[in-house]
Amino acid sequence: MFDKYLIEAGSVRNTGPAEAPTGFAFEAKLGYYRGLTLSMVEKLDVAIDGNLLPREAVRFDEGRGPLTLDEMETAYDRRWAFGAKATILVEHPGGFPAGEHELSLTEQLRISYLPFPAVNSDTKRVKLAEAADAAA
What residue stretches are annotated with the C-glycoside deglycosidase beta subunit domain (predicted)? Predict the structure, then answer.
């Protein structure tokens, strides 16, 4: 239901030195209407043009500092509220590729009353925020 709202399209930016980016980041929202503790986020898969990036390269930050996906498993005191933007950081040498590309995010969530994980996915054609601003 909320899948089309997961990725904030205009938020993609490179991280690290401008001349040699070490990764990229973008803003995302939770695809569940109540919000969850971070320990209930089982998976955050990020792909560029259909190529899944390694789990170990993904970090999550809801505003209290970045966590690896493994660290999120025991983050019982941290919460991702519905409607709140979180930053997804990805280690990716060279940063986000130049030009427009397909960015995908899949969230797998453990919902207390569901006997199966909830899976939400969003894919958008995006480009770096700086490049988008310069073109406008």
Answer: 2-113
